[in-house]
Amino acid sequence: MSRLVVVSLNAAVDQTVQVADFRLEAVNRVVSSRDDAGGKGVNVASFLAHVGHEVVLTGLLGDANAALFARHFAAAGITDACVRVPGATRTNLKIIDTLSGAVTDLNYPGLSVGPDALDAVKARLEERASGLEILVLSGSLPRGLPETTYAELTAWGHHRGALVVLDASGAALAAALDAGPDLIKPNRAELEELLGVPLPTAQAVAAAAQRLRARGVGRVVVSMGAEGAVVCDPEGVFLVEPPSVAVVSTVGAGDAMVAGFVHAQGLGMGGEAAARLATGFSLGALGEIGPRLPALARIEALAAQVSVGVLAV
């Protein structure tokens, strides 16, 4: 397995509640509720640990509710190198209507930090720099950190010989593109926001992904929900089409795809094989409540049902 570090600068407590026939402006009765240590980076680290990777996680956690994360890291086998800062890590509330399957998200803004907090994370990274092979940068930035944060960390990772995987959006993603991350994974809406144009078809998505590859991004993966994903890498442009599966929760599905590509990288996979396996990870997350994955055998069985074809652009 690769020596890898995941950076999570804006973690979250993922609170998932199930409500039958959820309605606005009405009293709703909660059927079940659970709190999970989450946020994109934490999810990626958890999924990689689940399939056997030794994962170091660094980033920022609010000291007021860090105990939930510490318990999760210990149970998952994740090495906790996170910096504690004053305040509480944000809560993201996801309401799942058990009748319709509709999902409503309420995401809190998160911590507000200064440059000293980022300096502390960089110091933790320096402690883990020796032999680093893969650096995963995942999630939004907390208030107070500059938009260039991921560009700086991408350059840091490359300077130390690491492959850099970036899953971000908005200004933080835009600022990092010229640093040449080795893999980015926006969804279609995030890519449309980044480029300022609608992308109504898979061919339009692929053409946009190719433009980003031309700017120096190694592999561009664009998730499109039930329509699958477009993968643009040195081996070609692929349309990845998943089988129809029952969706229990969408929490962490995109993060699972990122973890799947990292796992595939560790196995030496590329192109179609990596796309198929990463989609199996995402499909596995859709069948679980909260940010979780099924057993690796189930993930591989789902991956075997994924169709990957060359996309003409």
Automatic annotation (TrEMBL):
The Carbohydrate kinase PfkB domain, residue ranges: 10-289
Gene3D superfamilies according to UniProt: 3.40.1190.20
GO BP annotations, alphabetical order: carbohydrate catabolic process; small molecule metabolic process
One Gene Ontology CC term in the entry: cytosol
Pfam families: PfkB
Protein keywords: ATP-binding, Kinase, Nucleotide-binding, Transferase
ATP-binding in keyword set: yes
Reaction catalysed by this enzyme: beta-D-fructose 1-phosphate + ATP = beta-D-fructose 1,6-bisphosphate + ADP + H(+)
A molecular function GO annotation: 1-phosphofructokinase activity
Role this protein plays: Catalyzes the ATP-dependent phosphorylation of fructose-l-phosphate to fructose-l,6-bisphosphate.
Family: Belongs to the carbohydrate kinase PfkB family.
Protein name per its UniProtKB record: Phosphofructokinase
Organism annotation: Pararhodospirillum photometricum DSM 122
Lineage: Bacteria, Pseudomonadati, Pseudomonadota, Alphaproteobacteria, Rhodospirillales
